[in-house]
């Protein structure tokens, strides 16, 4: 299920979302002395990242990671890791730790096995997950056009992270699987623009998850996805 939080301006959304995420992280820090946050990449979250980076929380005990990453070098314009370093891990948030999904070399079985072990031992379940959504209804790198979509969405997938090769988007990807994203304690979908509202409405109008993977979050009765949308 989901709840829609509608904002007239993107800056209003960025500030409200940053306040909410800071509060959720503070609650986790008070309860267990540490907190984990997975964010998404793409073109949407820059303003939110900057707003969140100024929040006065115990960033030293926060681990930030990505819901998914393109398998590209840090210097690439397409790197979500670079986006997070340039826009979130600055100001007060510069003290946070970062859990890298992209490693040197190929995204092979050995790399994935090590990443899966590290993520399960040190990071999961996530306290806060911020998802984005593409025009095709993909979220994280759960791409409807990929051969891997069934296993990426499978609730019994024991892998936390897997490689995905989209057919209609550039770059091989590494993504957290739905089974592990869905265990996050707080799940937020951040989308902006009239086009994405249409995609959201389409996602709510039917339940085929392999056609639009975002449906797995919006239509799961056990998950309360907070949708943040602004024009
Ligand atoms: O490729 C990706 O796309 C989605 C959506 O990005 P946007 O540019 O339409 O906001 C993003 O959530 C994901 O992290 C990214 O890798």
Automatic annotation (TrEMBL):
Chain segments annotated as transmembrane:
none
Keywords attached to this Swiss-Prot or TrEMBL record, sorted alphabetically, are: Hydrolase
Pfam families tied to this protein: Glucosamine_iso (PF01182)
Provide the reaction this enzyme catalyses.
6-phospho-D-glucono-1,5-lactone + H2O = 6-phospho-D-gluconate + H(+)
In Gene Ontology terms, what is a biological process of this protein? Answer: pentose-phosphate shunt
Q: Which PANTHER family match?
A: 6-PHOSPHOGLUCONOLACTONASE (PTHR11054:SF0)
Q: Which protein family is it in? A: Belongs to the glucosamine/galactosamine-6-phosphate isomerase family. 6-phosphogluconolactonase subfamily.
Protein name, as recorded: 6-phosphogluconolactonase
Native source organism of the sequence: Colwellia hornerae
């Amino acid at each position: 299920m989901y709840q829609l939080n509608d904002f007239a301006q993107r800056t209003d959304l960025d500030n409200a979302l940053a306040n909410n995420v800071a509060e959720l992280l503070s609650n986790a820090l008070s309860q267990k002395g540490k907190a984990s946050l997975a964010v998404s990449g793409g073109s949407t979250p820059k303003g939110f990242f900057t707003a969140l980076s100024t929040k006065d929380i115990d960033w030293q005990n926060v681990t930030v990671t990505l819901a998914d990453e393109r398998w590209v070098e840090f210097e690439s314009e397409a790197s979500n890791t670079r986006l997070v370093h340039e826009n979130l891990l600055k100001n007060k948030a510069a003290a946070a730790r970062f859990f890298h999904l992209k490693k040197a070399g190929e995204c092979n079985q050995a790399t994935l096995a090590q990443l899966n072990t590290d993520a399960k031992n040190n990071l999961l379940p996530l306290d806060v997950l911020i998802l984005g959504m593409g025009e095709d209804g993909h979220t994280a790198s759960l791409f409807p056009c990929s051969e891997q979509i069934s296993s990426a969405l499978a609730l019994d997938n024991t892998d936390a992270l897997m490689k995905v090769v989209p057919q209609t988007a550039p770059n091989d990807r590494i993504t957290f699987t739905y089974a592990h994203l869905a265990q996050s304690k707080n799940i937020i979908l951040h989308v902006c623009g009239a086009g994405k509202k249409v995609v959201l409405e389409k996602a709510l109008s039917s339940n085929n998850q392999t056609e639009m993977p975002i449906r797995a979050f919006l239509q799961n009765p056990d998950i309360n996805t907070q949708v943040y949308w602004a024009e």
